[in-house]
């Protein structure tokens, strides 16, 4: 039997945080599509590629299972979890509520510096939207910057952690769905409307616009999943 293709390019140094670092690397591989839903994550292979023992790998897989990115099969193997359209819809609905609340709080608490960061992110997103398909990864990254600025402005660590967790799963599916050329300007327009509402200190509008934006993104991702 041939050896599986390597997933990672360099080892993880043995530290007290090795499990967290390994979880981060596996999470990124899942989000970026280097491992697909249903793929088996073999402890031996991961430990060999990352230059660690199996113990921190096992800890990392438990962390990712708690996040919903990995699940255990009947034979106790760890596999990348697959989500169907109904499950994705529910995840986006939850994310819409959490991020809508964050946008409402941001309208109350955002500083002038926060507004400038949102405007700068919007400008970068619009500029990237004019590029060809090779801008996909940059658009996804810039979208995370925009949403991250809002979460940071709220300064509620528990809320930010919940948003981060509920965003991980959709990222695996929306990275290629909401940023195709025909949708990019819609995303930019949504970001502009949210930024304007936050700048006007209109919490109700900011919350409603954010919820609409997240639910729309979810509809795009679910439609792509069903095709």
UniProtKB/TrEMBL annotation:
CDD domains in alphabetical order: WHTH_GntR
SMART domains: FCD, HTH_GNTR
GO molecular function, one term: DNA binding
Coiled coil stretches, renumbered: none
Keywords: DNA-binding, Transcription, Transcription regulation
Residue ranges occupied by any HTH gntR-type domain in the UniProt entry: 16-83
Protein name, UniProt field: Transcriptional regulator
Species this chain originates from: Gaiella occulta
